[in-house]
Design goal:
The chain is an alpha/beta fold. Helix content is 35%, strand content 14%.
């Protein structure tokens, strides 16, 4: 893994539309199993120090592209697209953002580090697969397409027990 200072920050937001115009932030630094894989990878909260709490609390305010551009996160994690494959997400949401006059200026869009943000509810097994997915997404030079854990062994444990 890169050192802590070389790891990216990310804006975790809710937006389930294919042509997003506003976003509802979550605090990546917040607690919960649905953020554990980001914590394990050392991904920091792009909203830290901005004063907003987000959906993880009672703050229900929305952000537009201009506000995101002021923060300019290294990556954007969009929740609400769990039904899309990586390719479908890239061909709809990321494609729209690349063509948008303001969104296209975001570092995350320029670097194509806009990802599906994962589920709101996640347990330990989900965490394994999400950790693998985001390790490969954030650090593709370090984590190759090889599996980070034995998928077959996990399946055997789930179906047959230890």
């Amino acid at each position: 893994m890169p050192g802590p200072d070389a790891r990216p920050n990310a804006a975790l937001v809710w937006q389930g539309e294919d042509e997003p115009e506003e976003f509802y932030p979550y605090r990546l630094s917040g607690k919960g199993a649905n953020k554990e894989h980001f914590h394990t990878l050392g991904i920091t909260d792009a909203f830290a120090g901005t004063g907003g709490d987000g959906l993880s609390t009672t703050d229900r305010g929305a952000l537009d592209y201009e506000t995101l551009l002021e923060i300019d996160p290294d990556a954007i994690l969009l929740r609400g697209h769990g039904d899309k494959s990586r390719e479908e997400f890239r061909n709809t949401v990321l494609s729209f953002m690349r063509e948008h006059s303001v969104a296209s200026q975001l570092t995350a869009v320029e670097n194509e580090t806009v990802f599906r943000g994962g589920p709101i509810y996640a347990g330990p097994l989900h965490n394994l697969f999400l950790l693998e997915r985001f390790a490969k997404s954030f650090f593709p030079d370090i984590f190759t397409e090889d599996q980070l854990f034995d998928h077959q062994r996990v399946a055997e444990i789930v179906t047959d027990g230890v």
